[in-house]
Amino acid sequence: MTAQGEAILAELSSLPAHVRADYIRILEAVVRVAPRAWTRRRGVRLQWITLHDGDDDVVVQMDSGELSKHVDWDGPRSTRSFAGALREKLGTNQCAALVYGNAIDSRTWGWVLPLLVGQLPRLDTAVMVDVEHRTGVRSTFWFPIRYRRLLVRRLRFQEDVRAILQRARNA
Asked: Which one is predicted more confidently, 91 or 21?
């Protein structure tokens, strides 16, 4: 296991047991849906993942503009600007997460502006996950990714994230 995998385990093991269980459920959903929602042009799509009260359901939704109420799209995007949206999405949910790619700022103006200044838009090198629990615990996880080249590029995690989460569940 790499240092990144050990850091994820350390972060999860430092959480109270009920928060850790909810975080692991959210992160398992991320591992399942992030590769499917990735496109070369848009990168890792903005997705909301919520864990409802009393349910065992993890709900995954593409962002449909909710983030625009909280983020100044003319300025650089940062995880600090996502905090208000994450807190609002938490609302009556037990746990909420925002999933995005780490090259989100290079796609702020699409593909045209980077080409005009002589740069290609960057590809994501990690899937970022901002998670907030009702107890007030907030964490950011990142999972390095690579692209497998076949006929069509596919997003793959560099490490076996499912195995890391299974170890965290058993700890």
From this structure: 21
Q: Cα angle vertex 74, ends 70, 78, to 5°?
A: 55
Rounded-to-integer distance, Cα 162 and Cα 111, Å:
33
Phi, psi of 4 (to 5 degrees): -65, -45
DSSP assignments along 71-93, one per residue: S-TTS---HHHHHHHHHHHHTTS
Instruction: State pLDDT tens for residues 22-56.
Output: 999 999 999 998 888 777 767 788 888 988 877 67
Instruction: Give whole-number Cα distances, 164 to 30, 67, 157, in Å.
Output: 13, 30, 12
131 CB-near residues (< 8 Å, 6+ apart)? 23, 26, 27, 95, 96, 97, 138, 139, 140, 141
Query: In this structure, what are the phi and psi dihedrals at residue 77, rounded to the nearest 5 degrees?
Result: -85, 145
Residue type, 71: V
Look up the pTM and report it. Answer: 0.82
Burial class (CB in 10 A: 0-12, 13-18, 19+), 8: buried
What are the percentages of helix, strand and coil residues in the chain, rounded to 5? Answer: 40, 25, 35
Q: Helix, strand, or coil here: 53?
A: coil
Which string of DSSP letters, residue by residue, matches 8-45? HHHHHHTS-HHHHHHHHHHHHHHHHHHHHH-BTTTBSP
